[in-house]
């Protein structure tokens, strides 16, 4: 008789545990979706930045090539030419970035791209704030064999 009294008093005590487990599982699923969305946004920004860096590396300083020639087998790059090529690449691709910059040392160009993105369930994990995605890409000017 005692065993039935004890089991009757413990009835229903698993309900809070089950609810907490479901809540944790739901948060984990929503977190996985949000992390996947953030990853895909990063991949997109990186692809845009890579394309812009390649466009800038392919834009040789024609004035230097015609006056000095090709020194060391690499085509010379200028900051103005690199920035113009990046701007052209971004405009042609139709990809909106919040900011970008292009720097060159004369043979290699480095492009930095930043975009603020809204991710899935950002209201839950980021408090409604956008997530900043930044990518950096470098490319060297083509060489002459």
Topology:
Layout: H1 2-9, H2 14-57, H3 62-67, H4 79-93, E1 99-104, E2 108-117, H5 122-125, E3 131-140
Antiparallel strand pairs: 1-2, 2-3
Task: Write structural notes for this entry.
The relative contact order is 0.18. 53% of the residues lie in helices and 18% in strands. By secondary structure, it is α+β, with helices and mostly antiparallel strands. α2 crosses α4 (79-93). The protein has a three-stranded antiparallel beta sheet with strand order 1-2-3. It has helices at residues 2-9, 14-57, 62-67, 79-93, 122-125; strands at residues 99-104, 108-117, 131-140. It has one domain. The chain contains five helices and three strands. The mean pLDDT is 86. A hairpin with a 3-residue loop joins β1 (99-104) and β2.
Gist of the model:
The protein is of the alpha+beta class.
pLDDT averaged residue by residue = 86
Counting structural domains, the number is 1
Query: Unreliable runs, pLDDT <50, ≥5 residues?
Result: none
Task: Please give the order of strands in the largest beta sheet.
Answer: 1-2-3
Tell me, briefly, the overall form: rod-shaped
What Rg do the Cα atoms give? 27 Å
Helix content: 40-55%
Spatial separation of the terminal alpha carbons: 95 Å
Strand fraction equals: 15-25%
The strand count comes to: 3
SSE order, one letter for each helix or strand = HHHHEEHE
Helix and strand composition category: alpha+beta
Largest sheet composition: 3 strands, antiparallel
Helix segment tally = 5
């Amino acid at each position: 008789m005692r065993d039935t009294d004890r089991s009757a008093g413990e009835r229903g005590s698993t309900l809070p545990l089950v609810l907490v487990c479901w809540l944790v599982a739901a948060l984990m699923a929503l977190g996985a979706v949000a992390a996947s969305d953030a990853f895909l946004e990063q991949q997109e920004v990186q692809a845009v930045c890579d394309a812009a860096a390649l466009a800038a590396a392919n834009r040789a300083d024609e004035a230097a090539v015609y006056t000095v020639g090709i020194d060391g087998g690499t085509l010379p790059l200028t900051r103005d030419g690199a920035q113009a090529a990046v701007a052209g690449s971004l405009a042609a691709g139709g990809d909106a970035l919040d900011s970008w910059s292009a720097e060159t040392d004369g043979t290699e160009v480095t492009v930095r791209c930043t975009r603020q993105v809204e991710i899935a369930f950002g209201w839950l994990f980021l408090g409604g704030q956008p997530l900043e995605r930044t990518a950096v890409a470098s490319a060297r000017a083509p060489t002459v064999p």
